[in-house]
Known about the structure:
Layout: H1 3-15, E1 21-26, E2 29-32, H2 36-42, E3 49-54, H3 58-71, E4 76-79
Parallel strand pairs: 3-4
Antiparallel strand pairs: 1-2, 1-3
Amino acid sequence: MSDKNAAIVEISQTANKFTSSIVLQYDNKYIDVKSILGLFTTLVNTNAYELHVHGPDADDAKTAMKEVFAKHNLSVAIVD
């Protein structure tokens, strides 16, 4: 499995631990991070991504998502 594939699987698995909505935005596209297929078509290079997290466990989800993106050297900004 490539590094990119490993990152995608881990990002999706991490997102699926939370009930909050977790959406990745880049350019004018919005991708549900819980969708592995969506991530495969999105996470292509080291673009600037924005993450929108809303829901009852949003704070925990934001922390976990920041950690998993950083682990895979992906730049992400959490939008409040």
